Amino acid sequence: MPPNQGYVHPKEYDWRDSNMKLANSDIDHKVKYQSAATEPAWNNGIIGVEPGVFIWRIEDFEVVPWPKDKYGQFHEGDSYIILHSEKVKSMSSGGGAEEDKNKLAHKIFFWLGSHTSQDEAGTAAYKTVELDEFLHGAAIQHREIQAAPSDTFGRLFPRLKVLRGGVSSGFNHVDTSDEPMHTDTLLRIFKHPSPYVGRDAIFIHEVEPTWKCLDEGDVFVLDKGDKIFVWQGKNCAPMEKLKAAQVVNDMTTAKHVDVEVLSQSESRSKIVVDYLGGQDIDTLTTQFKAPRPILSRPIDQARKKLFKISDADGELSFNLVKEGNAICRDDLDGNDIFLLDSGKDIWVWEGGAASRGEKAAWINIVHTYARQLEGNTLRTSVAKVRQGSEGNWFWGAVEA
Predict the structure, then answer these.
(1) Entry pTM
(2) CA distances from 211 to 72, 146, 226, 272, 367 (A)
(3) How many whole angstroms separate alpha carbon 36 and alpha carbon 58?
(4) What pLDDT was estimated at residue 393?
(5) Where is the Gelsolin-like domain (predicted)?
């Protein structure tokens, strides 16, 4: 079935699968802007005025500022909105690039933890649209899935930390406030899978404190409260060892405890396995393998495709325009909407003169297209840009 057909039954729709469920609905832009004008999170005299990174977490349907000392740290049970505003470069009369002090370029990231509630995800979806309206529709919008972060998000947070639990407003959430009794914490540290993010980019993922989560290709940090153990898998990378040392240093700054670093090849490393419930495990013969919590869609440039969403002929169509490295800027037409599958991520380009019907249809089309690619596994990030506000990352994906 073509992606422009089907998938319209409301019961099949999941808030998590789109970063803008209400985008281009019957609620017009004026109403949404008026709503944004009453949101305290946006109306602090800074948002849309000053450059920087700003993060909010959804708590009880409210947009709550995330503490700056926790930037780069997220909980898998939550939904977040991240705004990145930066000054843009313009061409001077002499032909050189100069900073336009009065103009900001914006990117909005809608990050969904793997265990966030549907209410939280839905609130974040609506508020993402609202924030874009507050910024006069000029922002690039990104849907970010915990298990499949985009390269763009990785560049913004080269040291991304994902912890278990979340705000205590939903089902199966864990209170993140300080508790009087310590609970063992196991962190898995590994390199970012994409070569386009940077060689020093890493993930720090809290995993279940069990020996079954150990993997000989990564480094693990076990915090027992009174002591911290670093377990180095025999095949881990030197950079992962270095980053683990930095993580432990941050942990010991807040509390003074002993730290012991153990290589998997050392016999004493069995103590870590024992603490994690593996007292009966023979560490000399056991192969420690555990899937990483990050999925990576293989980059396939030869598979890069450009599709056009158009109702110019009176009926909505979704057609392949071009594929491979021959795709270029000139293939885009401001009268329509285009879907670019870069071979890794999905981009949606909205032409300035696109029709109301095209604007209303692209969400379902992108959703169905992604489902056909992935089966029932969401591992592709989606970003939407408007003509005239594309940014270098979009053009890089087009012309790569």
Answers:
(1) 0.80
(2) 27, 23, 20, 8, 37
(3) 16
(4) 79
(5) 65-147, 207-252, 328-361
